[in-house]
Structures are given as C-alpha cells and as structure tokens.
Design brief:
Blueprint: E1 8-11, E2 23-28, H1 36-45, H2 48-56, E3 60-65, E4 75-78, H3 83-88, E5 90-99, E6 103-108, H4 113-120, E7 131-135, E8 139-147, E9 152-158, E10 173-175
Parallel strand pairs: 3-10, 4-9
Antiparallel strand pairs: 1-4, 2-3, 2-6, 5-8, 6-7, 8-9
Helix pairs in contact: 1-4
Organism: Cyanothece sp. (strain PCC 7425 / ATCC 29141)
Protein name: DUF4265 domain-containing protein
Length: 188
C-alpha cells in the first residue's frame, strides 16, 4: 500500500455513476483470479454459502441497503479520515477486501452478468454508468463503511489483523439507509 500519510480520495458524486437500486457490489476488478463466468455463477446462481465464500476470501462485498442510490454520492478514501470526518462518522461495517490488482470496482447490482463483464473490462455506455472503477495501490485492505450526514464514506486502509466476518442474510450484507443513522440524534 502507499505511504499511510498519503490520502487518496474519490468523490462518486463527481462521477457519472448512478445506481437506481438497493444493491451494490464492492469488489476487485480481478475477481480474485476468477473468470467473470465463475464469479457470476457463484453470485447469481449460487447459494448463500457460495457468496459467503467469496466474501470470506475478500473478493467482494454484496451490500443491500434499505433505500435507493445510497452510495451514489459516497466518498472513497484510501488512508485516514480527516479529524472532522472522524468526529462525525458512524462506523457501519468493517471487513476486508483484497485488491491485489489495484482496481476497485463499485457496481450497481443490476442482476445481469453482462454488467459485471462490462465493469471488469471497463466498458461504459456513453450516458449510463452503473459502475465506477478506481485505481488504488494494490494490496489487501481493511474496508470500513462510515455514515456521515452528507454521505457514506468507504475507507480503505492497510489490513493489519482479520476483522470479524460480517453478518449476511440471504447472501447479502444488509444495511439501513443513510438517514436511519441520524433519525434519533438530538441536535440541540
């Protein structure tokens, strides 16, 4: 991984990425050495055990939110959060992601193998971006998802020790919408 004092940021709100749905796949473009057909077989046609095996290996994270467009304006951070982000952020999820190829994919879960193929090959339609490809230093990362009032933050840092496996339901890591993290907060 790059020098930990260096912070890399990518604002999805500044990209054409759009996901009009509840599901996202956060993954390595190399699919952990699998072919697209093998990955899609496990993800689309496999059972919960097949999906958990992919998650356990750090190949991908299948996230299912209680609301549409939850990551469309997310901030992707490689390195440390700013002091302001740290003070406002609520940690939602922690796991690992193996990005040995140095290419992070954030995909709208459209339910079609063709969309995964397009993402892996970085083939976009001119006015339709259901995935975002981000180059980051190759490595095995600790993945942390944070909720802040304006957006979610996807943080990647060096994996030092194995975090506990996240709970999965029907092959998904289920998460509430962003607003649900702040409904009960008392502003003053």
């Amino acid at each position: 991984m790059a020098d930990p004092s260096e912070r890399l940021c990518f604002d999805l709100d500044q990209s054409p990425f759009f996901c009009d749905g509840h599901g996202y796949l956060i993954m390595s473009r190399s699919l952990g050495g699998m072919t697209v057909a093998e990955f899609c077989q496990a993800h689309y046609e496999g059972n919960e055990r097949d999906r958990k095996a992919l998650v356990r290996r750090g190949i991908y994270l299948p996230l299912l939110f209680d609301g549409d467009c939850m990551l469309d304006d997310a901030l992707v951070v490689v390195g440390d959060l700013t002091p302001e982000e740290s003070s406002e952020a609520i940690k939602v999820l922690t796991w690992k992601l193996n990005l040995a190829c140095g290419h992070l994919l954030i995909c709208c879960e459209c339910g079609e193998a063709e969309e995964i193929e397009n993402a892996v090959q970085n083939q976009r339609e001119e006015h339709w971006a259901v995935f975002e490809s981000i180059e980051i230093p190759p490595g095995e990362y600790l993945f942390e998802l944070y909720a802040t009032r304006p957006h979610f933050i996807l943080r990647f840092s060096a994996l030092i020790e194995q975090p506990p496996m996240p709970q999965m339901e029907d092959g998904w890591i289920e998460l509430p919408s962003l607003g649900e993290f702040f409904e009960d907060s008392d502003d003053g």
